[in-house]
Specification:
about 250 residues, alpha+beta, Aminopeptidase, about 25% helix
Length: about 250
């Protein structure tokens, strides 16, 4: 099974190839020009027009070349984690507006510590699911766990059943060659029974058994999702802000 150190190395190498920098650059910070790469996470649209990433104190920007001065100005004023706070985002929006862009996607990513992944109890039947089992599950109820637009990437899942009825589903997509992203859905009437954590933790362990890195994404404001990640042995690893064209509104 992968160690915590190996997991972080793989994740940082994945980020570096998408950002057009090195793994060491993620720790030092810097500004780089957008690139494309065949091994990028499947849901990303590369090259980035303006992307800001932090694995801790330092910031890495990947931008269109003509936006380098914007990144430099912003970085001088907000050189650390405060770049992700509301006053900084407001300033970034003002700097990007003349270029037809605005901050649009903002998320925190979590990686597991294998030593902390718990074995949690579950009062319902559990089944390990593979790609053929998902065929009839592309429904709104499972929209976080599965993605119909990229169904070929949905590779593994853990379902909970009540008398044969699927009531909760954690599933993962092979978004990168070595990294599988977990999503979780629980039917409303079965929430607050520990199902999300029981399934997420079990699926994370199954992914690690296969030599892949499970990762988990949540919005800052999604407290329930963040708590689920923490309960399952995941810890905050990196944060991202992506700017997209204003006309997408």
């Amino acid at each position: 099974m992968l160690t915590k150190e190996e997991i972080y190395k793989i994740a940082m190498e994945q980020s570096a190839l998408e950002l057009g920098c090195s793994r060491d650059d993620l720790l030092k910070g810097g500004i780089f020009t957008g690139v494309t790469h065949p091994r990028a996470r499947a849901y990303l649209k590369l090259p980035f027009e303006f992307q800001m990433v932090s694995y801790g104190e330092n910031l890495v920007f990947t931008v269109r070349e003509e936006l380098r001065s914007v990144a430099e100005k912003f970085r001088r004023e907000f050189p650390n984690y405060r770049a992700f706070e509301a006053p900084a985002i407001q300033k970034l929006e003002a700097l990007l507006a003349p270029h037809g862009l605005k901050p649009r996607h903002m998320a925190e990513y979590f990686l597991p510590d294998p030593a902390l992944i718990p074995s949690l109890p579950c009062d319902y039947e559990l089944r390990l699911l593979e790609q053929p089992d998902f065929k009839d599950l592309y429904l709104p109820a499972w929209g976080n766990a599965l993605c119909a637009d990229r169904s070929h990437l949905d590779v593994l899942g853990m379902g909970a059943y009540d008398n044969g009825r699927l009531i909760a589903l954690a599933a993962c997509s092979a978004d990168g060659p070595e990294m599988w992203q977990i999503g979780i859905d629980v039917l409303p009437e079965y929430r607050r029974r520990g199902l999300a954590s029981a399934l997420t933790a079990r699926l994370a362990a199954e992914i690690l058994k296969r030599g892949k890195v499970p990762f988990y994404c949540a919005a800052w404001s999604n407290i329930a999702s963040v708590r689920n990640a923490i309960r399952c042995g995941f810890r905050p690893a990196w944060v991202e802000i992506t700017a997209k064209p204003i006309q997408l509104d």
